[in-house]
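We emphasize that the prediction below concerns an isolated chain of 346 residues; any contacts that depend on oligomerization or on bound cofactors are therefore not represented. The input was used exactly as deposited, without trimming of termini.
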Amino acid sequence: MTPDGIVRAIETWWWPWLEDWKLDVVVVDASGRELLPAPVERPDLAPYRRCWALVTNRDGRPDTEREHVTKFNKLQGKRLGKLALVALAADDAENDEKSENSTTVSVDRVALVRFPKMVVPYFDPDGRADVSLARAFRADDDIDDVLRLSEPPEHDEWEATNRRLPTDGDKDVVRTVLQRIKDNVRKFRREMRPPRDPELVVVDVLSTTLADWFSAGRQSKGGTGPESSPVSIRYEQGPSLAAVDVRGERVRLEAWIAVALAEKRATALPVRVAFTCPLLEEEQASEDEVALEVTPPEGVRPDPNEENALVVELGNHGTWRFHIRSDPYERDWSVRLEPKVEVLTP
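Result of the prediction step, given as a token string:
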């Protein structure tokens, strides 16, 4: 790495410490030239530095409606930390998209900071959306040891599943911190979104390409298993989206899904059927899910061995149709409806 690259990295990951005048750094190159990190001169860091000023109370309370600070409630008697959010002007977000490169910090991230005032990652809680936010979370010293143990050797992530965490309580601390950050981001983004024309709401919601929202497709022979699977799953209606409020900020998913034998067989086939609707983060299913209301056909019974699952006897002359209806959720969430069928051993 070049001396200039070292300076850039110090600015990117250690600016909170530099900002609080707790760290003095001088980089000297081979010619004897002294280079000083200057995060104040980095436009890409400006929104995060403003967030840091808010969580550290350096500039008092937020002074506009586009700024928000929240102190997380304690968990297991431990203080968790504070989160600051700043909604960016459209021009700032456009400039970020045009200038984004490997040495520039993107907007719409959360600077996760713990002792000793180092940015661990720039966390992306929900992907880009229609309102760009810069955010900074300052972890309280009460949970510094837990967060440190949750980090991989690269110190670039807080992992609730890290094996170094000694107890389930510690894992719950990490999981809760990340979830509260996500919840606050979604709530603040909804508050910052401008009002929409009620007449255009439903049209706009339904114009989203369904292929980007659902992975199973219109018809999937063999369901989620291999092509030779004895079970066929297909959408009879939907999936469709409908706005549930006048502003179109919340939507509901609905679909009819048919399950049947892919080919005739001599005896009935018992299967376990379940449906989930996870939220997507960077096109991958997350641990968060939208609750579903599943209306099964007559003759289908709950699975005594697995929660939220049903047991079906598939025969040669029957198709079992399930009506799926989700709870309302935020319009800018990306979700995926996932039907799952498992053949049961007689």
